[in-house]
Amino acid sequence: MSITRDEVAHLARLSRLALGEEELDHFAVQLDAIVSAVARVQEVAAEDIPPTTHALPITNVFRPDEVQPTLSSAEALSGAPAAEDERFRVPRILEEED
């Protein structure tokens, strides 16, 4: 199948694109190459090969979601430069609105 200059002009009209004479010739060559490449890919695709999302099998690499011991407030705050009311104290960056 070959894309002709007239077909490109027709597509340009449908798309409301104003293309010059050189552009019509240029796009006809490009679109013909694209359609030919897609046709080659369709020839290769075999029906006996199931569709996949990844080339290799994927397994879950996350650890199990299990309850584990955590730090106490004192342990978590032990390395903090400043703490207040069992929380990290950080500099204010927003002004309060009245």
Automatic annotation (TrEMBL):
Entries under InterPro entries matching the protein: Asp/Glu-ADT_sf_sub_c, GatC
Assembly description: Heterotrimer of A, B and C subunits.
Stretches with biased composition (Basic and acidic residues): 84-98
NCBIfam families, alphabetized: gatC
This protein's UniProt keywords: ATP-binding, Ligase, Nucleotide-binding, Protein biosynthesis
E.C. number(s) listed in UniProt: 6.3.5.-
Listed Pfam families: GatC
Keyword Amino-acid biosynthesis: no
Protein name: Aspartyl/glutamyl-tRNA(Asn/Gln) amidotransferase subunit C
